Amino acid sequence: MRQIEEWTAQLAELAIFGANVQPGQLVAVTSYIGKEELTRALTRAAYERGAKYVDVLYFDQWLKRERIQHAADDTLDYVPPWMVERLMHLSEEHAARITLSGPHAPRALLGVDPARAGRDLLPYLPQSGEVVNRRTTNWCIVPAPTRSWAEVVYPELERGDAFRQLWEAVAHVCRLDTGDAPAAWTERIDVLKANAARMNDRRFDALRLFGPGTDVTIGLLPSSTWHAGDFTTVDGVWHYPNLPTEELFTTPDPTRVEGHVSATMPLELYGIVISGIRVEFAEGRAVKIDADEGADALRSAAAKDEGASRLGEIALVDRDGRIGPLDTVFYDTLIDENAATHIALGNGYESPVTESADKERVNQSQIHIDFMIGSRALDVDGITHNGDAAPVLRDGAWQI
Amino acid sequence: MRQIEEWTAQLAELAIFGANVQPGQLVAVTSYIGKEELTRALTRAAYERGAKYVDVLYFDQWLKRERIQHAADDTLDYVPPWMVERLMHLSEEHAARITLSGPHAPRALLGVDPARAGRDLLPYLPQSGEVVNRRTTNWCIVPAPTRSWAEVVYPELERGDAFRQLWEAVAHVCRLDTGDAPAAWTERIDVLKANAARMNDRRFDALRLFGPGTDVTIGLLPSSTWHAGDFTTVDGVWHYPNLPTEELFTTPDPTRVEGHVSATMPLELYGIVISGIRVEFAEGRAVKIDADEGADALRSAAAKDEGASRLGEIALVDRDGRIGPLDTVFYDTLIDENAATHIALGNGYESPVTESADKERVNQSQIHIDFMIGSRALDVDGITHNGDAAPVLRDGAWQI
Q: What is the ipTM score, two decimals?
């Protein structure tokens, strides 16, 4: 267990590095029951960095279960106003924000009605995307291993072994095992940014992604640029919003998506596992959503608002990352989305779009749901403004 | 453990009964890491009662430790604004409020500087007393047994036995063992209210409390009335703010307290244990505060503001309650203050004072700290407006 204590301290330091917590800053942490050890370690690390106050909210998925099972139907969309006021205050004060990911008590929502579950998105707030787009907060999401999460990923292992195995995997994909995770990430993100720069040089009009069960063409906005690794706040504070990160991403044209996609990995959405997702797009909209299980949770989320059935993100992941080769489903979007090329329904990021006329066309929604459609069997072509196709990814390797 | 599960469900129901949760009401819960089981049970019970939303905040004393140990000195009084906005919203919306008491991770604050600890009163808010006095929320505090609390109360027992023993004691003092705790409390509170009514008939000008280490005279306001058991909101919703409750209390004249008191029980204050408290009062003010341990925490709290060194409450506890006979220190003010006669430094309740001129004289402060000075060896006299003394309590029995 001493190794797990060391990893906990290192992961805490990595979160503070990723969020780039500044002396005197307010630091907000979104945590969950079961993640107390990492939460305490990163609280200590934040105060040692000079944080003014570390404002931790612990959420409990078993309370969400009680709500979904027992609350009146007309109350399920209620969001406590203080949660929104808190988020707005974090934005106004230019705070740091850290979120711990990983399935939270995966058994808590077993057997609940997915349609009701899809209406309670807390602690996710509809205003989260807007605050990200304001670039007022420096933030970072890192995974927080728990025993109950480990059981889901490694059901064949004994409980203690599964927990140890999950920590080993997280330590590997977060590059704690390099001995200097911040340096390792700086190096990897430099490579990702070089890949993004080569994509930007090509100025494709659209991408076509095709392979088993998927053939979709996704239009880009005239000024959509590819982005990787870091964000910078309006105050010039760089930060790594996701650790691990292995993707290049951009913001697509929400009106130009045609074709069909099949997810290559299951998705954990607000506590519900959705597997075998198949979506058909026409004129940008997801017009048909199916899944082997949990389809109603995704349909319910995609019906949240006008933009919820349109794309806000397209991200390319090559075969050089550390996650894909593990060939493991982590049921954690943060890790899984960095295993494979993916798209997201819902709110788009404005920062990859450079022209203000294009910013107005970025998809807006209360939701942002990534799901993985990539694998080494998924080919990606860039489509030029002349309609020519140029290979971008083949067998997970860059062709540009 | 099945018994503990049953007690948990019964205590959850008692909290909902005590707060008198109304259908459609917002229900705020203040809980702590380690108290998840009772929190989940009362969340379920609240939704079954028709709660609109159960808004639980889990606090973690180990995070408080990190703050007290590592945060800069000039940040320790910071209170996140959203916490105040949330409390004000609860008041405006006329919500129900439930708080779980009992030492929270008693080891978390071992060895920290009591003066620094006394500056971080969270989750207690300076505005709490004001909201109580507005009578807009129906609220209830109940104890929540934990293993770490049990170790403090029964250090001589093995850990599992101590937990079971603490639950047995809590089940007894909360009258769960009567088979119908709400009915048992209704009956006991009727007796307490009859005692209060007899005290009110006497219209004493002051009380003198005297016994080993204590001889103090506490003036009352002209319209100070004795109160027991229930409060009623401005909407007419009765509720039992404290369960268990064994006290009659009133609001004293903050300018007329003379003499000295010695605490008969140690006090757990914001995680610090303060034992052997001795306080001298002159013209209403605590002019000297000593203690065998933790004196600085109490001094620091009593220096918070002008009213923090004056009395906001005097409460009489007879020998017929269920707590005193256990002869056990629970290190939980909710239970311990109902074992013995006590006084409180800081904010006073307005509701026991009937005349508006007197309401203006009620002590105001950000703090409200009860400490126990009673025992069967403490005698209580009522002092009439003529200066005559009449016996009120002898050997813990009513003389009126």
A: 0.89
